[in-house]
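Worked example 4.2. Below are the chains of a multi-component assembly; read each line carefully before continuing.
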Amino acid sequence: MKTVVEQTRQTIPGLEEFCSQKTDEQIPFFSRDGRLFDIIYGQQFDREFLDQLCHLADLIRQLARTKTGSRQLRSLLEHKRAMLYFVQPSTRTFLSFLNACHLLGMKVSESRETSTSSEVKGESAEDTLCTFASYVDLIISRHPEAGFAQKAAWVLNNTERPVPVINGGSGPDQHPTQALLDIYTLQREFRSIGGLDGKKIAMVGDLKRGRTVRSLSYLMKNYRDVTIYYVAPNEFRMKSDITSFLEKQGIPYHESDDFESVMPEVDAIYMTRVQNEYGGGPEDEPTDYPDFHFKAEHLSLIQPHCSIMHPLPRRYEIDVLVDQDPRAAYWRQERNGMWIRAALIAYIFGQEQEVFSEFK
Amino acid sequence: MKTVVEQTRQTIPGLEEFCSQKTDEQIPFFSRDGRLFDIIYGQQFDREFLDQLCHLADLIRQLARTKTGSRQLRSLLEHKRAMLYFVQPSTRTFLSFLNACHLLGMKVSESRETSTSSEVKGESAEDTLCTFASYVDLIISRHPEAGFAQKAAWVLNNTERPVPVINGGSGPDQHPTQALLDIYTLQREFRSIGGLDGKKIAMVGDLKRGRTVRSLSYLMKNYRDVTIYYVAPNEFRMKSDITSFLEKQGIPYHESDDFESVMPEVDAIYMTRVQNEYGGGPEDEPTDYPDFHFKAEHLSLIQPHCSIMHPLPRRYEIDVLVDQDPRAAYWRQERNGMWIRAALIAYIFGQEQEVFSEFK
Amino acid sequence: MKTVVEQTRQTIPGLEEFCSQKTDEQIPFFSRDGRLFDIIYGQQFDREFLDQLCHLADLIRQLARTKTGSRQLRSLLEHKRAMLYFVQPSTRTFLSFLNACHLLGMKVSESRETSTSSEVKGESAEDTLCTFASYVDLIISRHPEAGFAQKAAWVLNNTERPVPVINGGSGPDQHPTQALLDIYTLQREFRSIGGLDGKKIAMVGDLKRGRTVRSLSYLMKNYRDVTIYYVAPNEFRMKSDITSFLEKQGIPYHESDDFESVMPEVDAIYMTRVQNEYGGGPEDEPTDYPDFHFKAEHLSLIQPHCSIMHPLPRRYEIDVLVDQDPRAAYWRQERNGMWIRAALIAYIFGQEQEVFSEFK
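Applying the procedure described above to all three chains together yields the following structure tokens:
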């Protein structure tokens, strides 16, 4: 009766098939009743959604300024509980989501280590997700594995009690809420000059592997007359999947390795660092590219309204001396992440009208 | 004056004597004014208590369905603070307690690692407990050491400011809140057919070391005309302390290693996994017992009302294909843990009448 | 274009200069509008401030006794969010601050590990601080590095959105909130006999390296007619910087290595343990000094009102048998830490009048 067996864990019927589908085929699955239910891909966002969310974020930050307003904010979702499931370390995204939840009155559980989980007892990742979902109303996940978030959303949408999933970063490619905060920052920095439409945006640094600049490029299709300037060393040029996409969408872009010549041309400069944590190869050497740094002396080269952005953390790409300049937008950008994530969570639970009604 | 001494830490007077007492002798110590104060042993629960707690859990989950009701729930204990002291990893029990506290409005502190504690500075376990109790109103502990919870309760009941203790699992034997959620699930799954009285329950798997099936067996004395079917490989049969107990209580039980023959007979099947994490010995080899698994094809063998339970995490004992069947109760069972723990905490702080009054 | 460079991180202009200033020169920087904004040094506290804070702590603990009062307390700062940034393990200080925040309704984020932070991505400590400050309204830090807290306060006070810093212990020297709780305990234990003025205080143990006794000595200048008895083995005598300070201030002190002869003389005995965690040297051997322990038999030697204190954790310095004596004040002292920290946080956000108004 006792048999030493080579166990193969069964997978949930339909899961593998779903995971093998293309992004476009998967996307409809993450909506319910014409609204986004799970937030997995940047491709889920259209202009109407982005505009609505930015507006909602503006109203939320305005409410948070007063004690009464912040009490109204907390009353929105004080009956809901969230789970932050962060398998991959991420101070910034974690704190940003946590405080977004706190702003809305949500109680938060967290799992930041695999070692405290039941995986040591041989539980499948799917069962672990279902366990988390048993206790909460929203799962926000961050995972080193590409495809994790869509798998999680599929599993949790197919239970007796579906629970929405927000992708807080999965693998090298998708980080949709970072894209949201970048869009929100651009719109907000340009709010007195007509918003993002018609602007020229430089993206600088490791464009090949940087998921923020890749996502941001995709989202430009939602805005009119935007021009992109890709500024990178030759080995870190933007990949052809993105440039092909831009060509199809009719979005003009320029490529250059001469950062200083681009500086006076643009309305925003989006700096990125070299991503040592991904993959091997010769680009992982402890080298740096000082020609792709933004230094204090460059402040005199850029336009008076030009916004300097960075997804952070920075290493040496931007001089700390630049921080004092009002055009240095990266710290505001970071805090915008909290507001736009609060807006996103409020949206997921259908609370927009509640927020709007506070201003009537 | 300076002496290298072999230090022997003193123990609190009376503690050793208390710890050496039998369970039955210790139990009265955990009650105050005719009510349970600390929750340490499954043996503390009688039928009246169990019925009351299941009823309270039903009302709490009903209140939690509305925003108003959940606000009333949070108002119950919003002035109280709990400490989750989990020295042993446990995702499920931890999250279940944490969210139970959140439902009741409690603020929660947690200690999940011994390395961040003062033990490195040479503090005794008793002093660490007193420190935790200094700041909070309730301690929920999980510890690998048998006897830890009763020691903690004794220490904290003998201070200027007694703080109740809930045992969230201590060592291989006691996990009383797991027993509560199992009872609650059985009662709830059978609620349209008269509850647990008169039912036939199979317990399957590692009965020798599984503390859930041991505790559940003990609690059966509180229910009328229950019959137990123990289904296990020979090396994992239920131990004689439990079967002797059943005999004394007049609770009929059967033993079998033929799972399929038992399936059609019973009203509930309680599956367990082989517990590799305890102790050494040949049973820790990476073997499995496929004859004691519940497979999709077994769904046709069991009764239409038969409830399939599992304390989780599962490894291979239940096919994931079974999850879709309405008789698969284990995910509901897991979530029941949150509700019954919320009921237990509300009870400890004497909040039953407050909950009942919401329904008047 | 690609260059392997030896990177030197720039520092924020002015930071180095500030850090090289003496304590007295730095202190004005931590106040705004005549009130303390950051809490970095014990030297920031004068008698008026200490008396006000002790009074505030008394009122807060009184409010916390009732459900209504505790709701009023939480309403004070429910719109604020704090960050506990504890790089160094500290159960007691951490829990004390956390529960102080909870009492006042604050939401709390925490970072207790450097490994989950962005430092692995090469971020500077200053940027990490600014990130934390992006999401919250108060930073409470604990750090092994002397000077960390003042650096943090300087950095965060020089941003677009200044955020106050409380020093929860930095390096071997400063732990101002420990000093506050010690003062609060002395005042409270002596409340029926005129408070701390005119009392005789023994400080016992490792006076050379113990930062609590050093800070407490400094603060004695705020009280009238206090006499200090330093009781220590020769190798752990109080350093001359403190004794010089006392001489300048005209505060009488005695030094002794005969603990028992001092016992009957004093109104309070402040016990400390030998601090193995700091520095090397021969004093780090696993030795102990039993002549500097307080044993049960000593209870008959001290005055009926004499208060026995200890910053905890204790090792063997105080018999557990002593705990039952009403003069054993160390557990009350520990809990006082929560109340005085709640008072401090309420003060920082200017909530004193709100608290006082509850008693009108």
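Take a moment to check your reading of the output against the notes. Residues 1-6, 277-285 of chain C have pLDDT under 50 and may be disordered. Chain C has two domains: 15-44+80-174, 176-276+287-333.
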